[in-house]
What does this fold into?
Amino acid sequence: QQSKPLVDAYAAVEDLLGGVQSYVNVWLQYQSLWDMESGNIYGRLDTNLSHWQKLLMDIKKSRKTIDNTETVKRFGPVEIHYGKVQSKVNLKYDSWHREILSRFGGLLGQNMQEFHTTVTKCRVDLENYSVDAATTSEAVGFITLMQELKRKVRTWEQKVEVFRAGEKILDRQRFQFPSHWLYIDNVEGEWSAYVEIMKRKDTAVQAQIGILQTKIVAEDKVVEHKTAELLMEWEKGKPVQGDLRPDGASSTLTIFEGKFSRLKEDRDNIIKAKEALELADPGLVTARDDRVAVVLEELQDLKGVWSELSKVWEKIDELREKPWLSVAPRKIRQALDAQLQQLKGFPGRLKQYASFDYVQRTLKGYTKVNVLITELKSEALKERHWKQLMRKLRVSWQLHDLSLGQVWDVDLQRNEMVVKDVILVAQGEMALEEFLKQVREAWQTYELDLINYQNKCKLIRG
It folds into this structure.
């Protein structure tokens, strides 16, 4: 009991010092004003105008807590003089406030300008549409546009409110509006005009709903007929034949792709209009829609097939153009094997087409007759043998202009026996020529030992 006054005194001192520490900590928190990076702040705010407005309001509110004429805070006998700190903090606050206010002003002005441009364009588009005089295709476009714009009304209303609040904040916080600033009064005026034309056009649509439904049904029949014709044209004309060249197939696919793209756009517009006029349930997919989707997928597959096959055909064409006199059968075989290996790496869905099978058979055929190519490159074949071969194959070649492709084109597999007969004759004649050459060389170097016989003649010594 005697020590209680002392304990109370210590407790009072502790409470006093705690209050001092808490107050000092409040001032120390302002150190973050110097530590902050503007990039981090702008990154978190991004383009959300509501977040920017809240930040500016918070800055203004926080500024009031340190904006006073006092420079001393007393805690009993303890005095805290914060005049110099307060002056520095105020200056830093003002610097941040000016920078953020300027950045927000630029962002708000840009958004208001873009919104005003968008709304003006939509209003002009609506004014150019006339429900009474519209053709069926125009009616489709008009209804689709109306549906899209009606879905945006609520979002755009919220934007106008944000713009109004944002400009009010800029005005209250003494933002210097540039000379080209588009004020909220202009934005609201354009918005009001847009809402008014929307209401009038919507009323006109509702009054003409029956006529528009009839037009859409008629347009739907036209599009369905075009779809059936194009699907039939695709089945007859899609480039799947193996003997087609890649450039011709790609050109055909490009034409079909353009036709199907326009058809899909027409079908999408019809679907949107039918949904808008309650002629079809939202999201309903018909069998014809599925068929078009399948064809578009097949078209993309064929584009992939011909794109890959064009690389193979390009290599084949390079081999075909190779001059016969420079043909090396071993290198030709290596090139053919490389292309066959490339074909093996094609995805399974691309291997189902006849164009793939055709080029694969072509390469395998060239590989199979490469043995004949090797034999035709033999030194045994002289010019007379080539003439004999050309007569039997009914072709007219000039060896100095002959290419590997021309040799392939005579169908060496079918004419294998003809070619082999000529090659066998050439090889036989070459063997005979070699034998005669050896005989001639042997006799030319053979020496005979001759002796005189009774001065009448010479005899070969035995």
